[in-house]
Amino acid sequence: MATFKHSPVDIGSDYVIVATADVGGAAFATVAEGEGVRTAGANTVFTVDLQPVR
Amino acid sequence: MLRRASVLVVVVAAAACSPNFDVTIGWTLDGDDPAPVCEFLPGGSVVRLSATSRDTSDERNSPARETTSDVSCDAGSGSIQTSNFAEIRAEVVDGDDVFGTSGLLSVNPGAPGYGFRVEDEAAVADIRLIRGSLTANLTVVDESCGDAGASTFTVSLFQNTEPRANALVVKTSRSPATTAWPRSSTARSTSARTT
Predict the structure, then answer these.
(1) Are residues B26 and B113 in the same domain?
(2) How many domains does chain B contain in total?
(3) ipTM, 2 decimals?
(4) Residue B8: inside a domain, yes or no?
(5) Distance from C-alpha of B136 to C-alpha of A46, rounded to nearest angstrom
């Protein structure tokens, strides 16, 4: 599993991750607006799933 | 004789002006035991105890002195030198980044009777976290990236600073074959790994 980690982030603030991946020449990406999360506590963990780019 | 008395007064005054009590302060993070929380904060995080202390409780006639003490975040308590009366604040810091801060604690170790406090009554600061870490587990069509055979990634992190406006925090790219993503010039602490 690939893990992206960043600090510091403001607790209670909204963040968005926009990601892309190349799998054997095929492109995968988050939805256009990205995956959003509101941070809470010392460490906010969430999953970002990339889908085929059509 | 008079000169000797003057010297004695100066020596006593100088001694009275220096911090001369080791005050133990405990802390919690958002009301919880700090150790499990500290492990999610950057590795260099410490709790910084800052004291503003005076020899008397009268702010008008008693100059303030500042002392600080850095203690490992997960220690749960630490000591700081103060004068007779002090206000102490506890903060979680990593370099210049402040992750949380407490309110002011008033202590008066030089006041009569203070030395009779039992250990259970040691002052405890509750540090309210205002910053933390964000961890995103990246999958490709619900499979781990390694299983999916992903060769390269790019990740951009934005903060929603106002309605319909996102500010770029960090943009980075890497190959899963490497163990760490390049550190961006805009990121103070960014990492990634693949298993």
Answers:
(1) yes
(2) 2
(3) 0.95
(4) no
(5) 5
